[in-house]
Write a structure and sequence with these properties.
15% strand, 12 strands, Rossmann fold, two-stranded parallel sheet, 10 helices
Length: 313
């Protein structure tokens, strides 16, 4: 099979968050590579906020891929900043320390684009990560995840611990989170438009001005990037994972309106925040270091996501 290597053979892999949105796609990709053992515990079985659970989870493990996170959109972030900071930093710190204690061979940590400063020059370069404070609605989550980079770099220096840190942009795709209380912008917009069409509603409300821009990565492309980084990347420096293209929220809304055949009115609630003004990554390092280039056309990815929501909801 294309992309298949013997890297995964004879290895025991732990994926945290394996039953989440990205985790399902990553689990399938790694299963296909036939590791010796693939551990995909559920939150009900192991709580990574608990250090003893982390020690148990990482025993006799060769590679940990840490996806588990408490996440949400702007509204969720505004309502739960303390929870987002505490739970994300605790899970990561515990898992990294437990992995060190248990002599795990490699730790792959998923960071977040929310860790970048609010006014990062576009396209975001990894070197700009520390040049300012994150956008306020994202800061508790973003900083909690960024501390894992500090921990991994410190552990590499003191203990020779091989931890790598990836910075993916906003993801989207089939089986995304469509819960309006915690969903990100693409699933939230798809749900609003499809539900409006089905229920004969002629108006939807969208947060902000529409002027902010975002970059979006199809979930299966992100899973592929993680596989390639696990196989080929062993350095301390963080690496952006994305497409390298941005779109304004206004243009995104227009695309989703057209693809869902919503013929009604879009009302912009400008009393709500836009979040970070612009987001677009420089993705040259991922290509150079481990050969990752995103492949999925944005319109095609949106169509697949819309079809999944229509069929599965």
């Amino acid at each position: 099979m294309e992309g298949k290597t013997n890297f995964w053979e004879n290895k025991t892999i732990l994926i945290t968050g394996a039953h989440g949105f990205l985790g399902k796609f990553l689990t399938n990709k790694i299963k296909d590579r036939q590791p010796k053992s693939l551990l995909i515990p559920r939150h009900s079985e192991l709580d990574f906020r608990n250090f003893e659970h982390c020690v148990k989870a990482t025993e006799n493990v060769d590679i940990v891929i840490h996806l588990a996170a408490k996440v949400g959109g702007i509204g969720f972030n505004l309502e739960n900043p303390g929870e987002l900071f505490y739970e994300n930093i605790l899970m990561g710190i515990n898992l990294i320390e437990a992995s060190r204690v248990n002599k795990v061979g490699k730790f792959v940590a998923l960071g977040t684009i929310c860790a970048y400063p609010k006014f990062t020059p576009v396209p975001f370069k990894e070197e700009d990560l520390w040049n300012g404070y994150p956008e306020e609605t994202n800061a508790p989550y973003g900083l909690a995840k960024k501390m894992l980079l500090v921990q991994l770099q410190a552990y590499r220096k003191q203990y020779g611990f091989n931890g790598i840190y990836l910075l993916p942009v906003n993801m989207y795709g089939p089986s995304d989170n469509f819960d309006p209380k915690s969903s990100h912008v693409i699933p939230a917009l798809i749900k609003k438009c499809v539900d409006a069409v089905n229920n004969g509603v002629d108006e939807i409300v969208v947060w902000g001005t529409g002027n902010a821009s975002r970059e979006f990565l199809y979930v299966e492309d992100c899973a592929e990037a993680i596989v390639l980084a696990a196989e080929r990347y062993n350095k301390a420096d963080p690496v952006n994972i994305g497409v390298g293209k941005e779109i304004t929220i206004k243009n995104l809304v227009n695309k989703i309106v057209a693809l869902t055949n919503f013929g009604g009115k879009v009302v912009w609630d400008t009393s709500k925040p836009d979040g970070q003004p612009r987001r677009c990554l420089d993705t040259t390092k991922a290509e150079k270091e481990f050969g990752f280039i995103a492949k999925t056309d944005f319109d095609e990815g949106l169509k697949k996501t819309i079809e999944w929501y229509k069929s599965d909801r």
